[in-house]
Amino acid sequence: MSGFDAALASCAVADRSSLSRLVATGPDLLGLLHRLSTGDVKDLRPGEGRETVVTNAKGRIVERLFVHNLGDDGVLLVAGPEGAQRVQAHLHKFTFAENTGLSDVTAATFAFALLGPRWAAAARAVGIPELGPYGSAACTIAGTRVHATRTNGFDANGVLVIGPRDGAGCVRDALVDAAAALGGGAIEADALEAWRILSGLPAPGHELTEDHNPLEAGLRDAVSFTKGCYVGQEVVARLNTYGKVSRVLARLELEPGAPVPAPGAAVLHAGNTVGVVTSAILPPGQLRPVALAYVKSRELTAGVTELAVDDGGTIRSARLVLS
What we know:
- The chain is α+β, with helices and mostly antiparallel strands.
- The protein has helices at residues 3-9, 29-36, 83-93, 119-125, 168-180, 189-198, 233-241, 297-301, and strands at residues 12-15, 20-24, 49-55, 61-69, 75-79, 102-104, 109-115, 136-141, 144-149, 158-164, 185-187, 247-254, 266-269, 272-281, 290-296, 306-311, 314-321.
- A hairpin with a 2-residue loop joins strand 16 and strand 17 (314-321).
């Protein structure tokens, strides 16, 4: 079974070491992050975690973070590829006397994700305890002490295993063996990207940018509407209260044999531009390219499903996939 098929039908192991990983050992990180992001994170207890979005004053996305309280090992922040510098720079602007002890541990660690419908069975097989969404626990895999966090790096449907880089090979082998016992295996980067797009999951640098806000990106679960003030809170709250989210992330399926559209390609309805492609790929073994795009909300509420993509002047038919 290919890695792509494994992710769809069983369990796949993805190398997610490109994700940024930061650890805070100071006492003030959660309080600071609580004031700068959408999630209610200040009272996370050891073993608990939460998704949150660092926003700018306009309520736009600076970085989506998975926050995990590791207890005595500090607070782990998982950000997008090359996101550590953005996070550190943004937090630094708002840091006064806070002691965060924040450091970038990306280069010193590995990160492997178990994902797909049978990820939980594979996790149990290597000794990872049951975790609540975004929860975490320390455990030992292949003789290496690691932290397991309930996320695949996109959402909570999987587990991310993080440990010292010198243990990467042994831990990866153990995870792949566990997945293989369930009919799965390793997944390569291109296949992982196809799985992500098919699953409708936004990613940094594509859908999660300062051009968009968390509600447009489908990150409502990362937003607390009761926690009080944070940078950008008034804008996000107003969008929610008055139903002013003008565009939403949608999944498109193009006509068979069509070229893969480039990011930035216009999405059309009745000859009018109603959106823009942010990610696209031809999944392994399939004929139809798939894409993620921001589409005007009114098109979805009007029940429109037949769209088109402007592929460099050639109009290709596309279907809105509702899930």
